[in-house]
Amino acid sequence: MIHIADRISRLGTETAFAVSAEAAAWAAKGNKIYPFHLGDINIPTPATVIYGSFKAIKEGKTGYCPTAGIQKLREMIAADLNGSHGTSYTFENVAIQPGGKPVIGKFLLALMNPGDEVLYPNPGYPIYESQIEFNGGVPVPYGYIEGKKNFAIDVDSIKKSISKRTRLFILNDLHNPTGAECSQEELNEIARLAINHDLIVLSDEAYFDIRYKGKSCSIASLPGMEKRTVILYAFSKKFAMAGWRLGAAVGPKKIVDVIAKLNVNFESCTNHFIQYGAVEGLTGNQEGVKNILNILKERRDAAHEIIQSIEGIRCYRPNATFYLYPDVTEAMRAKGFKDYDTLRKEVLHNTGVSFCTRQHFGKIMPGEKKFYIRIAYSGINLNDLKEGLTKFKEFMII
Predict the structure, then answer these.
(1) Quick one: which H or E segment has residue 196?
(2) In the chain, ranges of CATH 3.40.640.10 domains
(3) pLDDT band at residue 9, thresholds of 50, 70 and 90?
(4) Pair 376, 323: CB distance under 8 Å
(5) Cis peptide before 174 (omega within 30 of 0)
(6) How far is the C-alpha of 210 from the C-alpha of 311, rounded, in Å?
(7) How far is CA 18 from CA 13, 126, 387, in A?
(8) What is the full DSSP assignment across 332-361?
(9) Cα dist from 322 to 101, 272, 297, 301, 351, whole Å
(10) In the chain, which segments carry CATH 3.90.1150.10?
C-alpha cells in the first residue's frame, strides 16, 4: 500500500490554477476565453534580458553556479534596493531564488518553529497560509477594510491577534488581490508593532515596481526595520519574466545565509544563464520596463471604466499592481446568484470571461458579508479585454 505523508494534508494550492484549468476545458470545446484569472503577463520580456541570457548560454554559462547566485546579480539587486529603499545591503544580504515563491517557504523554514504563530493577509496570496500550515506553524489571518481610495489593512485586527506565540508577520504591499498600497501611517504602525513584539517581517514586494502613480515605500526603509525584514524580490512582474522563474530573498545576513543553505538542499542553485539576463535587465536600457507599465496602465483604465459602469458593482482604481477587486454584492443579489461558484461558472459559460473570486485568496473570514471578484488584466490584450468585459457587463444587466 502507498501511504502519503500526513503533512501533505496540510498543503494547500494556488487555486487560480484550478480556475485556469476550467477555462482551458471550456476553450477545448470551441469557446473563446477571456482570461482574467491568472496574474500572468502576456507582454514580451524586455530584449535586454533575452539578449543577456542568450549571450550567457553562448558563453557556456549552463552549469552550476554559486548556491546563493552569481555575485554580480546579487550586487545589482542590493544596489537596486539601496537606491529605492535607502537601505545598506551588500551582495551578502541577497540569495537568488528560482522565482519569488520559494522565498515564502524558505523564510518560514528558517525562522518558524512548529506551533509558532504567523500573521498573514487574508484575502491574500494563498501560498502564505499553505506554507505556514505545511511547515507546522499556526496561520493567523488579518483582514482589509474599505477606505476612501482603496482597501486598507485592518490594523486593529492585527493588534488583537498578536500573542506570546506570534513570531512572524507577512506583509504584501502592494497587495494581491486588492491592489491596495499601505499608507505611511499603516507602515509606521506595523513597524512599531513588529519592533515592540520582536517580530520578523516578510515583505512581499513582487509588485513594488508595478505602479502608475505615486511612489512605492518599503517597510524595510523605516527605522529599525532593515535588520528585521526579509524582502521577497521578484523579476516576474517588473520584467514580465513570470515563466523564467527568478527572484531573491534579501535581508539580514544571518537569515539569508540559512536561506542559501536551504538552496543547497532544494535546488542546488538557480538557473545560471538567466541570472546574467537579469543583470542586463537591471543595468541596460529601461524602455522595455516602461513599455510594460504603459501597456498595463492602458488596460487598467479600460477595465476599470467598464467594470465601474456595471450597475450593482463598485470598484476602486488602484495605482499599483495589475488587479481590480470589485464589490459585486449588489449585482449578484440582483441576478439571483447566492454563491461564488455559481456566479463564476455562469459568467464563464455565457460570456467566456474567466476570473477568480474572494474564495481563491484564503478562507472566508467570520463576519464577511460582501462578495468580491478579482480581475487580472495583465494577461489579456486590450481589444479582448474590452470585448470580454463588455460581454460581462451585458450579462450582468438585470
Answers:
(1) helix 184-196
(2) 63-283
(3) confident
(4) yes
(5) yes
(6) 29
(7) 9, 13, 24
(8) HHHHT--SHHHHHHHHHHHH-EE-EEGGGS
(9) 18, 29, 8, 11, 22
(10) 6-44+288-396
Q: Is 6 exposed, middle or buried (0-12, 13-18, 19+ CB in 10 A)?
A: exposed
Under 8 Å CB-to-CB from 180, ≥6 apart: which residues?
Answer: 144, 150, 151, 152, 153, 173, 174, 318
CA atoms within 13 A on the CB side of 312: 19
Cell representation of residue 235: 523579476
* Distance of alpha carbon 205 from alpha carbon 231, whole angstroms: 7
Per-residue pLDDT reduced to its tens digit, 222-264:
999 999 999 999 999 999 999 999 999 999 999 999 999 999 9
- Residues across the chain: 398
Query: In CATH, what number does 63-283 get?
Result: 3.40.640.10
Of the candidates 299, 292, 347, 291, the residue with the CA atom closest to the CA atom of residue 323: 299
Q: How far apart are CA 327 and CA 388, in angstroms?
A: 19
Report which DSSP code applies to 312. T
pLDDT of residue 15: 73
**CA distances in angstroms from 77 to 90, 117, 243, 271, listed in the order given:** 9, 30, 20, 16
Nearest to 117, CA basis, from 170, 172, 163, 156: 163
pLDDT in tens, 180-222: 999 999 999 999 999 999 999 999 999 999 999 999 999 999 9
Q: How far is CA 285 from the centre of its chain?
A: 26
- pTM for the whole thing? 0.95
On the 0-12 / 13-18 / 19+ scale of CB atoms within 10 A, 27 is: middle
Q: What is d(CA 350, CA 352) in angstroms, rounded to the nearest whole number? A: 6
Please say whether the beta carbons of 145 and 151 come within 8 A: yes
57: exposed, middle or buried (Cβ count in 10 Å: 0-12, 13-18, 19+): middle
398 has pLDDT over 80: no
Provide the CB-side half-sphere exposure for 395 (13 A, CA): 20
For 6-44+288-396, CATH gives 3.90.1150.10
Q: Identify the pLDDT of residue 3.
A: 87
